[in-house]
Amino acid sequence: MEALINMVLLTFMAVVTIGVIRLKSLFAVVILSGIYSFLMASVLIVLDAVDVAMTEASVGAGISTVLMLATLYLTKHEETPSLHPPTVAFFLALVTAGLLIYGTLDLPPFGSADQPIHLHVADRYLKTSIRETMVPNVVTSVLASYRGFDTLGETTVIFTAGIGAMLLLRGRRKAAAPAKNNSSAAADRAPKGDEETTA
Predict the structure, then answer these.
(1) Is 83 exposed, middle or buried (0-12, 13-18, 19+ CB in 10 A)?
(2) Which of 1-7's residues contact partners 24+ apart within 8 Å by CB, and which partners?
(3) What is the pTM of this model?
(4) What is the pLDDT of residue 89?
(5) Is residue 34 within 8 Å of 61, Cβ to Cβ?
(6) CA geometry: angle 91, 97, 99, nearest 5 deg
(7) Phi and psi for 78 in degrees, rounded to 5?
(8) What's the rounded Cα separation, in Å, for the pair 91 and 98?
(9) Phi, psi at residue 25, to the nearest 5°?
């Protein structure tokens, strides 16, 4: 049953990916990207990686979607036509996909219990995490204690990306404000000029 659910979710993700490639509306692409992240979070839940699923749902389907929509508010909603054919990009994508698939050939079978992580690290975490960290949840102890610096780095990257996006959007809004004020002032002066010309 778990394999069937994963196949259905992965099929939906493939359909969404094709939609992202084919659509020209950037608004639709952003919404589909949020749906893709939500589907990815669902796959991670099925794989019992709830902590990663929560991060994917909050960052991928939540914060990233909001930032993209805020960016579209200040930019165009339609994709600019490309000046070059997509042949080179398509070729590079195929090469990258081939290298990634080739890299998975040496991986152990999916779900096998004799993997190194299950024979050494995971067993130690389950036996000693509560005593060493005083945290009753093993996943929390791994993320906040054993992998504390890694989690801090991930949080810093997300925070920095959010601050950078806010600064970019703020700068663009400030640049757009004088242009809007100048156009409004020109519109206010136009009728007066017409009346003087008529007189």
Answers:
(1) exposed
(2) 2/46, 5/46, 6/43, 6/46, 6/47
(3) 0.59
(4) 83
(5) yes
(6) 105
(7) -115, 145
(8) 11
(9) -80, 120
